[in-house]
Amino acid sequence: MELPFAESYRIKMVEPIFKSTREQREQWIKDAHYNLFNLKSEQVYIDLLTDSGTGAMSHNQWAAMMTGDESYAGSSSYYNLKNAIRDILGFEYFLPTHQGRAAENVLFSVLVKPGNVVPGNSHFDTTKGHIEYRSASAIDCTIDEAFDTESLHPFKGNIDLEKLESVYSTYQHDEIPMVIVTLTCNTSGGQPVSMQNLKDVSRLSKKYGIKVVFDSARFAENAWFIKEREPGYEEKSIREIVAEMFSYADAMTMSSKKDGIVNIGGFIAMKDEELFQNASVFNIMYEGFNTYGGMAGRDMNALSVGLNEVTDEHYLENRVKQVEYLGNRLMEWGIPVQKPIGGHAVFVDARKFLKHVPKEEYIAQTLAIELYLEAGVRGVEVGTLLADRDPKSGENRFPKLEMLRLAIPRRTYTNNHMDVVAVALKNIFDRREKIVHGFRIEKEAPIMRHFTVELERID
Ligand SMILES: *Cc1c(COP(=O)(O)O)cnc(C)c1O
C-alpha cells in the first residue's frame, strides 16, 4: 500500500482552543454587528479568517529570535535578512517595513501620481486602497477564466496579455508607473501565475518601458504550483523556480506574514539603486531607519529563517496538500468552490451556494455568518463588502465573484480541524434552500469598509 500523507513536522508547543454553544455564538455575532472582524478570538473555535501572521514558527525561527540584534543601525539581523533576500529572491537592495501594506505605502509614495493607472491581476485590497488613495486607478487584467469557478485552468492568476497591452497602448507612458503581478493571486482564489506569463508580462512591459512589480506575499506557494503544473519545471528545485520568477521583476513588495511564516513584517526589494534611494526617503519617514524599517532585529532574524523554510519542498507539499484536502472534502459533497483549489485557502462560491439571497444582501457575508453560527469557524467575505463602493458614483460595486474564503494558517491546524470545517459547511449546504435573506449595512467607512462595517439582519 502507498503510505498516507502526513505532516512534515511534529508539535512541540500547543495552544488550547475553545468550543462554544450555538446560543453563545448567536449573541456574540449580534454584539459584533455581524462583522466577523469584531469577534474576540476566544469566541472562535477554528480561525480561518486569514493566513496572515497566524502561522506557527519553527524551533529554528524561535531560536533566531533569541539572537536578534537590536542595534539601531547596521545590525547583524539586518544583514541576515539582506543575505536571505539576495540569495533566495535575487534582489540587491531592500527596505524592511512593518508589513506588506507599509511596503506598498512607501513604494507607491515614490511611483504613483494622481490620475495614474496601475494594471495588474486582481489587486489585493490594500494595494488597491493605496492606489485609489493617491487618486489613481487599478485596472484588472486577469484572464477571464479566473472568474469561472468551474474552469480548471491551471494558472488562473495569469494576466491577460491583450488586456495589458490595451492598457499600455491606451495611456501615456508617464501615466503607468508599473504593472503589479500578485503571486499567488489572492482575490481570484489563491490562484498561481505561470512562469510563461511572468516572462510574457516582463517582455511586454520592457517593450513599453513599464516597471514590473511583484506583490509577493505567497511567492513560494506560486513556485510550488509552477513545479507541479508547468511543463519543463517538474525537475527544477523550488529555489531555482523562485529565482527565475523574480528574474522577471524590477521590484517586489512583500507581506512577510504569509510566505515569510512570521507574525509581523514586510519589505520592499528592488534591483535599481535609484529607486532604492528614492524609496529610502519615505521608508525613513514612515517606517524607520533603513536597517530596521518597521521591524525589530529579532523579527528580521526569524524572517530570514522563514524565507529558507518556506522554499523547502517538504514544507510546501505539506502546506498545499492540506488546503487541497479541505477543498476535496467539500467537492465530494458537491459544494461549489473555486477550482482548482488554491495555495492558501479554499474559496466557496457563495452565489452558487446560497441561490436565494439577493446580491444586495451580501451573499458571501451571509454564508460566513452561517458558518460561524454552525461551528464557531471564522472565514472571511471576499465579495461585495470587500469590493467597496465606486469612489466616483458612491454605488456598491458588485464583483464578478462572491466568495467565502477559508484561509488556512501555516503549520497551525491539523486535518481533524479541516474535517470539522468541512462537515459544518455540509450541514449548511443541506439546509441552503431555507436561507433566503442576508444583511443590510447600518454603518460603514468610506474606504476598506469590510474591516469595520456594521450590519443588521434582514428577516
Ligand atoms: C496581505 C497582503 C498584502 C498586505 O500585506 P499586510 O502584511 O497585510 O499589510 C498585500 N498583498 C497581498 C497579495 C496580500 O496577501
Helices, strands, pairings?
Elements: H1 22-31, E1 46-47, H2 59-66, H3 76-89, E2 93-97, H4 100-111, E3 117-120, H5 125-133, E4 137-140, H6 161-170, E5 178-182, H7 195-208, E6 211-215, H8 219-229, H9 238-247, E7 251-255, E8 266-270, H10 273-286, H11 297-310, H12 313-332, E9 345-349, H13 350-353, H14 363-375, E10 377-378, E11 380-382, H15 384-387, E12 403-407, H16 415-430, E13 439-443, E14 454-457
Parallel strand pairs: 1-10, 3-4, 5-6, 6-7
Antiparallel strand pairs: 2-8, 7-8, 9-12, 11-12, 13-14
Helix pairs in contact: 1-14, 2-11, 3-11, 4-5, 4-10, 6-7, 8-9, 12-16, 14-16
The structure holds pyridoxal-5'-phosphate.
The site of pyridoxal-5'-phosphate has 15 residues, from helix 4 and helix 5.
